[in-house]
């Protein structure tokens, strides 16, 4: 077992002052700055993801899969500039998810389990962005780019986009199961065991989207109560939980190889140097 290291260089304490000053200080002296960078990229990505998909492009909640050609063409027309501007922004921020996935893989490297769990998860989720997001964005952008395109082609792009988004969740299913198994087998207490079972809940929601390939109406259609609405509620809860737990992992990280230390109470001096450059992340002193 390797000896743990301190949160910052010996003899140094995080400074007070402006946010840019604290960021620069942590960049130079805090061994956890890479972990905090990845965590903030994750927070920024998921917030922008929700804004772009729900507000700017207005493609979520998903439209009805049973619409006729004329209705689908009108749907594209109503969202023309939102689709072009929104998905152009999505393409710009897609890279934010790379350090986020790397942070999750790091959490598994910190566990007592074999490194294959981390590498498997990283590969699966690196590829999952293609069917889970990029194909949808490309298809809808192509449909919006030329409003004078053959309506039947636009109709095809509509089906392709939403089937790619809702009907290809198998990669996320396997990823959730890998993370679940790592957590339940881990002896380093990186995450609580109940979070492993929450991963199982998330994995099960990826199973129930499979009927979207068959049904165009009802609870199993791509806009159905089970396939989308229940799945979305579980996903939002799951995402909020793992972002919170990853933050706690970074605060607890001692760069050893044994069990992670317990999280110190807010205001405890032992916890005062572990919370990153943002004032919002620092425990009260």
Present the secondary structure layout.
Blueprint: H1 19-29, H2 33-56, H3 69-78, H4 80-93, H5 97-109, H6 116-145, H7 151-166, H8 170-185, H9 193-207, H10 225-252
Helix pairs in contact: 2-4, 2-5, 2-10, 3-7, 4-6, 5-6, 6-7, 6-8, 8-9, 9-10
Question: Would you kindly provide a written description of the structure presented here, covering whatever features stand out?
Answer:
- The chain is an all-alpha fold and 285 residues long.
- It has one domain.
- Helix content is 62%, strand content 0%.
- The protein is built from ten helices and no strands.
- It has helices spanning 19-29, 33-56, 69-78, 80-93, 97-109, 116-145, 151-166, 170-185, 193-207, 225-252.
- The chain is globular, with a radius of gyration of 22 Å.
- The relative contact order is 0.14.
- The model is unreliable at 1-7 and 278-285 (pLDDT under 50).
Structural class: mainly alpha
Low-confidence stretches: 1-7, 278-285
- Straight-line distance between termini: 32 Å
Specify the number of helices: 10
Oligomer: single chain
**What proportion strand?**
under 5%
Overall shape: it is: globular
| N-to-C SSE string, H for helix and E for strand | HHHHHHHHHH
C-alpha Rg, in Å? 22 Å
Number of structural units classed as domains: 1
Helix content: 55-70%
Q: What is the tally of beta strands? A: 0
Mean pLDDT: 84
* Main sheet summary: none
């Amino acid at each position: 077992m390797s000896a743990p290291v301190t949160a910052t260089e010996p003899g140094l304490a995080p400074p007070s002052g402006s946010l840019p000053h604290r960021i620069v200080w942590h960049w130079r002296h805090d061994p956890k700055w890479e972990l905090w960078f990845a965590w903030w990229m994750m927070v920024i990505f998921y917030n922008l993801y929700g804004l772009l998909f729900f507000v700017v492009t207005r493609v979520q909640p998903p439209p009805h899969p049973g619409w006729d050609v004329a209705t689908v063409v009108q749907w594209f027309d109503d969202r023309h500039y939102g689709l072009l501007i929104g998905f152009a922004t999505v393409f710009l921020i897609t890279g934010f998810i790379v350090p986020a996935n790397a942070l999750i893989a790091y959490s598994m490297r910190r566990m007592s389990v074999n490194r294959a769990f981390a590498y498997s998860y990283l590969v699966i989720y690196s590829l999952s962005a293609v069917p889970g997001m990029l194909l949808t964005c490309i298809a809808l952008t192509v449909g919006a780019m030329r409003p004078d395109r053959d309506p039947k082609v636009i109709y095809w792009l509509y089906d392709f986009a939403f089937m790619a988004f809702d009907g290809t969740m198998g990669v996320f299913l396997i990823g959730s199961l890998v993370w679940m198994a790592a957590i339940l087998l881990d002896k380093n207490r990186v995450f609580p065991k109940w979070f492993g079972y929450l991963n199982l809940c998330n994995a099960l929601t990826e199973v129930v989207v499979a009927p979207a390939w068959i049904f165009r109406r009802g609870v199993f259609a791509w806009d159905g109560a089970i396939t989308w609405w229940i799945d979305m509620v579980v996903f939002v809860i799951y995402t909020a939980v793992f972002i919170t737990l990853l933050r706690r992992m970074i605060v607890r990280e001692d760069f050893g190889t044994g069990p992670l230390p317990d999280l110190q109470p807010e205001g405890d001096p032992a916890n005062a140097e572990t919370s990153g450059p943002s004032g919002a992340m620092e425990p009260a002193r």
